[in-house]
User: Fold this.
Amino acid sequence: MPDIEERYNQLVARLRETALLGSCGHLLGWDEQTNLPKKGAGHRAEQVALLSGLVHEKSTAPELGDMLSDLRNPEDIGGEESPQAAVVREARRQYDRAVKLPRRLVEELSRTETLSQQAWIEARKAKDFAQFLPWLEKVVALKREEADAIGSETGVKYDALLDDYEPGATTEQVQSVFGPLRDALVELVSAIRDSDKQPDISILTRSYPVDVQRQFSISAARAIGFDFDAGRLDVAAHPFCSGIGPGDCRITTRYDEHHFPGAFFGTLHEAGHGIYEQGLPAEHFGTALGHSASLGIHESQSRMWENLVGRSRAFWEHFYKPAQSAFPEALSDVSINDFYAAVNDVRPSWIRVEADEVTYNLHIMLRFELEQAIVSGDLSPADLPGVWNETFQNYFGMTPPDDALGCLQDIHWSAGLIGYFPTYALGNLYAAQFFEQAEADLGDLPEMFRKGEFAPLKSWLNEKIHQRGLQYRADRLVEIVTGKPLSAAPLLNYLHNKIDPLYGL
Assistant:
């Protein structure tokens, strides 16, 4: 009979070693998006493929399987909901997925995704889907092969990919939450469209010098709690956050001199991701206890800081005078009322990452619908632009004028992140429910924000969410923190409380 404590310690050491190797790949991925010369893509693809193969080899080693087998009884390590049981549970889940994938497929996916992302960047610049199509076809074929190899208990191919980002979730469960939300949002958008009150959003397209945007965004990110001694901000074609490891979190944004919200709220969004990464227990790096609960929970943190905090009236009562000082030419003649209304404008738009809080979720539901069809084979990659435009017309009442504003706007499919998109809308749902509970526990959050006091909310999130890592799956974590299962009600209540007064509804 093996010594259980010794076997557990061996497992943790093994997981940390594998995660350390994986973090080298994350660093190469960050560098690829921020610094890599065009001609270096081919060599980078080989580097990433080799690293992915080595990680896969470590993740599927027979001795790891033996450790997990010896630790199969939760009662030996503290019971079903103990931290140790969570480490073993999630390690077994990852192991069971990994052993179904041949190393050849893992390496080919990494190689293809690296080259595909570079092709996407050039195709997006050229607004030419045909230029990207061969790469998308390769990625989709490989992801279908991955889904087939992993399989799913539901028999739905898409669920095998969704589970990688939202452990334990199924397409059916996601649809059950999205359905009521979609209907309510369509009704709200219709009411807003019919309102006589429309904010002047032209003030957001005045001249906002990029260097000043950068400094102002950094000051806001620092104020809400992103630690720049443990992270940095750079520029990328598509904003992202990369948690390399303890003490090293990289966030990115992109700037447009004539679109203030893009970089500012994008920076707050990625800083929210970064605050989560920086809040994970460093001593548990490599195990479930040092890992985020899910991509949806991760997204809840970014959307909370971006929207529930960053687009709140109280936030701008603290930050608006500094904004006017930073951008006197653009904002000296603009009242806080007009500015607040402008940054909370609701109207159909092309770009997901720049969409308002109401229509954003419809952007996600569109992608969720198309992803399922692509994975099942009901939609061919070659037909994506036409189906995208048709679906966009059905959802938003307008048709994208080109591929860059349509199906080429997101990096995800080029990076093989199929199954990722629904986590964004789930994140909005989680964020509203967490924020509602935070206010119940902490008191008047808006009054704190007016004073520039963001630490109480950050500390609450650190304690209730970040420090727990992946001890609990997302659905269980929500119930533990809020006392209720996930519901669309908190998000809809929040949106109506904010939007109805702005549009006289």
Summary: The mean pLDDT is 95. Residues 171-503 form a domain with the Neurolysin; domain 3 fold (CATH 1.10.1370.30). The longest strand covers residues 248-253. The radius of gyration is 23 Å.
